[in-house]
């Protein structure tokens, strides 16, 4: 884990969180992205999970096949208006597994290396990452798993939050990585369900709106271990509020070195980035 100092000169550790593995460098939420992020030296792999029709925990940001990322099982392009018909919650994993999600060029990420890749199961990611970490003789990585649920999506794009969390938690426990895993979500219901099912599991509230910090905590009903704001929301006042509640703070998604430096100056606990190589280079220089 890399080290730096805060604005008062205090020595601290900063966690490097690879967003969707390393979305800026490899196809997002795929085995190549997670394994490359591991090789770069990230501390934590951030990933998203959804549920298939046969209740498999699939690593994917959207609960459908994205037109900008994937082709269908026959290798045909998907049009944006066709995405709802590729609802992963209505598709068995045997179909999802046949769809490529790594060969389309991403204009937002010109450094991304295109390669054939599919949406893996969470258990598959854990197995591959744990094995590769042993090969590299490096410290085990942590997992930050975003539960992708919404009130509007209940029973349409995913099961109820209670069942959703139950399925994900089962995979984490089977993989033997629960002690190195945290659940994060924008959906407060998912975090409430996780707290009930696994009281010791670290939980993180993701935030992207201007609602006051205290209001978010009141709606959640408990103090989570981590606060995950969109990075422009982070300032000295928010840092003081988070620290007053003994919470950690890991902003997302920070890709430019100038923004990384500003957050280091504020002494955040970690940074989630599509480009962990950039953050690691900055930390090495420091």
Polypeptide structure, described:
This protein is 31% helix and 17% strand. Strand 9 (226-229), helix 7 and strand 10 (248-249) form a beta-alpha-beta unit. It has 286 residues and is of the alpha/beta class. It is globular and about 50 Å long. It has a single domain (3-63, 120-285), classed as Alpha-Beta Barrel (TIM Barrel). The strands form two sheets. Strands 3, 4, 5, 6, 7, 8, 9, 10 and 11 form a nine-stranded mixed beta sheet that branches.
Which features characterize this protein?
single chain, 286 residues, alpha/beta, TIM Barrel, 9-stranded mixed sheet, two-stranded antiparallel ribbon, 11 strands, 17% strand
Tell me roughly what share of residues is in helical segments.
Answer: 25-40%
Shape: globular
Mean pLDDT: 96
Structural class: alpha/beta
Question: In CATH terms, what is the fold-level topology?
Answer: TIM Barrel
Number of helices: 9
What is the CATH homologous superfamily assignment? Phosphatidylinositol (PI) phosphodiesterase
Level-2 CATH architecture: Alpha-Beta Barrel
Rg over CA atoms, rounded to whole Å, is 18 Å
Low-confidence stretches: 6-11
Counting DSSP E segments of at least 2 residues, the number of strands comes to 11
Number of domains: 1
End-to-end distance = 13 Å
Beta-strand residue percentage: 15-25%
Main sheet characteristics:
9 strands, mixed
Classified by CATH, the class is Alpha Beta
Topology as H/E string? EEEHEEHHEHEHEHEHEHEH
């Amino acid at each position: 884990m890399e080290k730096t100092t805060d604005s008062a000169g205090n020595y601290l550790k900063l966690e490097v969180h690879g967003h969707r593995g390393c979305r800026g460098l490899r196809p997002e939420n795929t085995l190549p992205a997670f394994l490359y992020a591991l090789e770069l030296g990230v501390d934590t792999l951030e990933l998203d999970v959804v549920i298939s029709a046969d209740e498999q925990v699939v690593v994917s940001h959207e609960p459908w096949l994205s037109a900008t990322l994937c082709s269908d099982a026959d290798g045909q392009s998907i049009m944006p208006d066709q995405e709802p018909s590729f609802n992963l919650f209505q598709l068995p994993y045997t179909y999802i597994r046949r769809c490529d999600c790594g060969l389309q060029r991403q204009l937002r990420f010109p450094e991304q290396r295109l390669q054939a890749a599919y949406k893996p199961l969470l258990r598959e990611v854990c197995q591959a990452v744990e094995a590769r970490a042993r090969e590299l003789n490096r410290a085990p990585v942590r997992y930050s798993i975003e539960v992708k649920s919404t009130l509007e999506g209940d029973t349409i794009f995913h099961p109820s939050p209670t069942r959703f969390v139950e399925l994900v938690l089962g995979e984490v426990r089977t993989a033997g990585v629960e002690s190195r895993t945290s659940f994060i979500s924008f959906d407060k219901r998912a975090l409430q369900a996780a707290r009930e099912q696994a009281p010791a599991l670290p939980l993180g509230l993701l935030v992207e709106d201007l609602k006051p910090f205290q209001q978010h905590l009141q709606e959640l009903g408990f103090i989570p271990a981590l606060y995950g704001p969109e990075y422009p929301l982070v300032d000295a006042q928010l840092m003081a509020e988070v620290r007053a509640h003994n919470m950690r703070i890991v902003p997302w998604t920070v890709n430019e070195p100038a923004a990384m430096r500003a957050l280091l100056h504020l002494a955040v606990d970690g940074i989630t980035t599509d480009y962990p190589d950039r953050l690691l280079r900055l930390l090495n220089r420091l």
